[in-house]
Each structure stands twice: as structure tokens, then as C-alpha cells.
Amino acid sequence: MRLVIATCSVDYSGRLTAHLPMAPRLLMVKADGSVLIHADGGSYKPLNWMSPPCKLVVDDDIWSVTNKAGEELRITLKEIHSDTAYELGTDPGLIKDGVEAHLQELLAEHVQTFGEGFTLVRREYPTAIGPVDLLCRDADGKHVAVEIKRRGEIDGVEQLTRYVELLNRDPLLAPVRGIFAAQLIKPQAQFLATDRGLECVTVDYDLLRGMESDVLRLF
Amino acid sequence: MRLVIATCSVDYSGRLTAHLPMAPRLLMVKADGSVLIHADGGSYKPLNWMSPPCKLVVDDDIWSVTNKAGEELRITLKEIHSDTAYELGTDPGLIKDGVEAHLQELLAEHVQTFGEGFTLVRREYPTAIGPVDLLCRDADGKHVAVEIKRRGEIDGVEQLTRYVELLNRDPLLAPVRGIFAAQLIKPQAQFLATDRGLECVTVDYDLLRGMESDVLRLF
DNA sequence: TTATAAATGTCGTCC
DNA sequence: GGACGACGTTTATAA
């Protein structure tokens, strides 16, 4: 990794065109040739960048970074304040502990969240257009398809609509109702879901987790 | 901006929990206190980070970065290979061109792009499921909803479908047709749009911008 | 402050 | 390589 502190201007031409006036910044050149231009503030997103795979060509005080798609990042250097390089090696990588998968797991074990007498048919119930998060039966034995999101937005309602429509074509399952479950459901999604005849359930993740703890505490 | 090359392990605890095993990495500490941890590869996204506003507390070989929401980024340092700091000042910022807002602006002023005799009713026409980019009337005075994208993909067609369906329920507006306008329309989006009875218009951004220049040149 | 849509989104996964 | 969905999405903008 090469780190250059330099006063520079930058022009990007690709999916859009963008320009950075002359100012002091950090240029980070990674081992794969990618380049990031950071200011001393903002967030983790660089002011400008070129993602790998790409190629850096240095011609005097002009750096030109290009990729296969014909995008170009052109850096014009006025003054270099520092220029250092380090060998870091490949990173072992990040270990994550997920959230959404866990939410589905918890709800699968507590389908009564959706109503008295609910039972689980199966998780990830397969269909031609992808798996339904949960397929349940209500107290009357009727099928219910459940789509689970952390945040309920319009896309999720569309997804559930497609599932319910498809499942209702199966005479062994029909009639199938749909429940849209999320930690937070946005007003527009709520409107669309209601308009489509789908029910909305707001899920309390911490409460569910608490129920899980209670179950564990019994042993 | 402080740049530290160090062998470290990292633990994040907040919206999820994540862990980075001990390895050499770049730690970037910005003037606002935010911290980025970069490996020598990947893209512009750091392996881990804390966004401002946040506070960094250094206790010997443990760095703890916390924010108001109670999230914590804990960095355990084993060995520091380099530690430097620079004063960059505030950045003048990025100037962008070619974004969707500008495209909408240009099309709003040149609705005849969609057909002879087109007039604009209004931009961002409000509905219960969100604003329609452009609502126009054609030469016959019939309403036309226009959805504008930089790149026309399936989700944009879905969006327009919803708008047209909703607008057609309003007897004051019906019948409403839909036009899907984009700089580039993907074949799948084109197919779906046609299947839904929506028209597709490919927009030449540079041409539109040229027309704008022509108008300006008259003054 | 809150909510909503765009993003040079990025990133994984599946096909 | 393309399509699809999640993301500690982040970011900008309007209400």
C-alpha cells in the first residue's frame, strides 16, 4: 500500500463526470492498483476513487487510472508532501454476526407472533421465483406466506405479492394470505401492502430475543 | 489526519458484532475523530470503521471509538510500524455532473422529447406511494406519467407500473399512459415495460444538454 | 428532525 | 459474467 499526501486536483469521467479542485489530500494506492482519494473528514467514502480491476499509469505529475469499462480517474499533482509505501499482505478478513438470518430464525420458532394458533409449515419454502421466508398455517389451517425484512420497504411488498400470487395458483395451498413482517415498516410500504390485501406485522427483535433467552433459562 | 500502519485486531459492536483477527493494516484517524481501518485490497469500503460524530479514547495499546448510539469500535494494537499526521484543512468538495436530478430538470424543460405537443403538468407529482417524476399531457390532452432513470432497469419499470395503476384510479386523470425514460434501458426492462403497455424512451443526455446550451446562447 | 429516494452505491450468492 | 437482494448500506434532499 502506497500513501501519498499531495496537493492535487482530480477529474473522474465514467458513469458520471466529477471534478475536485486543487487541495491537499491523501492518495491511497492499494496493491491491486485501486486508488482512493480521501479528505480529512466526511465519512468512510472517499471523495473520489477507482475500484479494481484497474491500471495506474504515472506520467510525470499526472496519474491516470483506467478500467476496462473506459472510466478514467485523472489526478494532477501540484506538490507531494509525503510518499510512503508498506507491505501489508492479504487480510484474513472480517467475521460477521448477522442480523436478518437471526430474525428469521427467531420468528420461525415463534410463529405465534403472527397470531394465536399459528404453526410453521417450513422455512425457506421453495417456489419457482425463489424461497418464501416462512410458510405457516393459521388457527383455521389456512396457509399464510410470511416475508421477513429488517426494514420494510416497497421492494419487500412487491416480493411478497409475487409469492402470494404464485402460491395461490397451487390448489393444494390456496387460499394463501400474506404477512409482511419487519422491525420497521415504512408508511409507503404499509400503504401498498394494505392496498394489495397483505397484512403488516411490526416485529420487536429485542423482545423475541428475550423470549429466546427465557426458553434457554429453563434449562 | 493521522495515519498509522499497525498490526492490530478489531472488534465492532453495534448494529452487528464483527471481528478482525490480528494482522497488519492501515488505521486512518480523521480530524472529526472518525476512524477507518483499511486493508491492502478490496474496494473503497474499509474493513471496519466508525463514522462521525464519535470519540476516540486511547488507553495504552487499546483504542476505543464510541458514538452516541452506543456503538463501539475497539482496536487492539500489537505493533505500530508507522505513525504520522498531516494537516489537510477542509476540502473544497466534489463537483458532480450527470446525475438523475439534472436529467429530470432537463427533460422537464424539454417534454417534447416524448412527443410533439407534450406539455408539463408538474414535476414530482405527489401520490400516496411517492412522487411521479413528471406528469405531462400529450397532444390530445391525455395524461402521461414519466419515470426517469439514469439506467433503466426492472425496478424502475415496477415503480412506473405502480404509479400508472394508481393514477388511473383517479377519474380526473384517467386514462394515464406511462413512459419509461432513461439514458440506457436494459433489454429485460424494455421487455417488461412493453409487456405492461408502457413506452420506452432512450434519452441522449449530451444532446439535451446541448439544447440547453443553445437556449442560453440566445441571451 | 424525520422520511424518502439515489448511489460512480458495494458486496455476497446463486446460477 | 449477469441477476438479485442485503447492507453497520451511506448520502443527499425535501417535508
TrEMBL record, chains A, B:
<keyword id="KW-0378">Hydrolase</keyword>
<comment type="function">
    <text>Cleaves both 3' and 5' ssDNA extremities of branched DNA structures.</text>
</comment>
<dbReference type="Pfam" id="PF21003">
    <property type="entry name" value="NucS_N"/>
</dbReference>
<keyword id="KW-0540">Nuclease</keyword>
<feature type="domain" description="Endonuclease NucS N-terminal PH-like">
    <location>
        <begin position="2"/>
        <end position="92"/>
    </location>
</feature>
<comment type="similarity">
    <text>Belongs to the NucS endonuclease family.</text>
</comment>
<feature type="domain" description="Endonuclease NucS C-terminal">
    <location>
        <begin position="99"/>
        <end position="219"/>
    </location>
</feature>
<dbReference type="InterPro" id="IPR011856">
    <property type="entry name" value="tRNA_endonuc-like_dom_sf"/>
</dbReference>
<dbReference type="InterPro" id="IPR048302">
    <property type="entry name" value="NucS_N"/>
</dbReference>
<dbReference type="InterPro" id="IPR048301">
    <property type="entry name" value="NucS_C"/>
</dbReference>
<dbReference type="GO" id="GO:0000014">
    <property type="term" value="F:single-stranded DNA endodeoxyribonuclease activity"/>
</dbReference>
<keyword id="KW-0238">DNA-binding</keyword>
<dbReference type="InterPro" id="IPR049173">
    <property type="entry name" value="NucS_N_sf"/>
</dbReference>
<dbReference type="Pfam" id="PF01939">
    <property type="entry name" value="NucS_C"/>
</dbReference>
<keyword id="KW-0963">Cytoplasm</keyword>
<keyword id="KW-0255">Endonuclease</keyword>
<protein>
    <recommendedName>
        <fullName>Endonuclease NucS</fullName>
        <ecNumber>3.1.-.-</ecNumber>
    </recommendedName>
</protein>
<dbReference type="GO" id="GO:0005737">
    <property type="term" value="C:cytoplasm"/>
</dbReference>
<dbReference type="InterPro" id="IPR002793">
    <property type="entry name" value="Endonuclease_NucS"/>
</dbReference>
<dbReference type="GO" id="GO:0003677">
    <property type="term" value="F:DNA binding"/>
</dbReference>
